[in-house]
Write a structure and sequence with these properties.
alpha/beta, 29% helix, two-stranded antiparallel ribbon
Length: 238
């Protein structure tokens, strides 16, 4: 018998760091992606992958009412628990986990990764039934350089030996865990080194399982990423 399944959709950021100043009034998770917001498309993947999944959506406090109105206006039917984002991603996840019971399987996913496939989501949930946590990764294909800023604006210089790309992988989401372990791990004190959920659980002393992710499961961080995501979605729908 499968455990109850939950997904925490992390959409609590303002999204202004790498976005043009002219577009900063609207966080990128709410931007249009061929008729639907990026966030709606992300949530729909989990609805398709696991019908009946419980959704916890983390939002910027100033956009909670906006999202409620968006869902109503666009007839987006998805019962959700809405949670206010914290001062960091760590605190936002901790806020969301307070809404999830023990004995469940919980995924944490970036709200701006709408291209993960339902098949991959199902695979990760199924694997997590008898593991501490399952993390999707993709191998680094570029030559990795260790650099530091130089005195010239926009120019970098070598800062050490080249990294061995054969042992380097990029972590993606959704990262899927036994809920009680994830909640206990997030009871630790915050550390800036916590860059994802895997780093939090690893610090807690738990061994995780890593599986191949999907190259096209990109995170929309820049305007170019949104263009690419639209193109990929269009090709999938051909």
């Amino acid at each position: 018998m499968k455990n109850n399944r939950y997904c925490v959709i992390m959409a609590g950021g303002g999204g202004a760091r790498l976005w043009p100043r002219s577009r900063r009034s609207m966080p990128k998770q709410f931007l249009d992606m061929d008729g639907k917001s990026v966030l709606q498309r992300t949530i729909e993947v989990f609805q398709e992958a696991c019908p009946g999944i419980s959704v916890v959506t983390v939002l910027p406090e100033d956009f909670i009412d906006y999202w409620k109105e968006y869902c109503l206006r666009n007839n987006f039917i998805c019962p959700q628990i809405l949670v206010k984002g914290g001062i960091t991603r760590f605190h936002s996840v901790r806020n969301a986990l307070a809404k999830i019971p023990d004995g469940a399987i919980a995924a944490v996913h970036d709200g701006v990764r709408p291209l993960v496939t339902p098949a991959k989501v199902r695979e990760l949930f199924d694997l997590a039934e008898d593991k501490v946590g399952v993390i999707p990764v993709v191998p680094c294909v570029d030559t990795m350089k260790v650099l530091k800023p130089s005195d010239l604006d926009g120019v970098w210089e070598e800062a050490g030996a080249e990294a061995d790309r054969s042992v380097l992988f990029g972590a993606q989401t959704p990262q899927v865990f036994q809920s009680e372990i994830l909640k206990d791990a997030y009871g630790q004190a915050y550390d800036p080194a916590f860059t994802d959920d895997a780093s939090v659980v690893s610090r807690y002393g738990k061994s995780l399982s890593y599986v191949m992710g999907e190259r096209l499961n990109i995170k929309i961080t820049t305007p170019e990423d949104l263009i690419m995501a639209k193109a990929i979605a269009a090709l999938r729908n051909m």
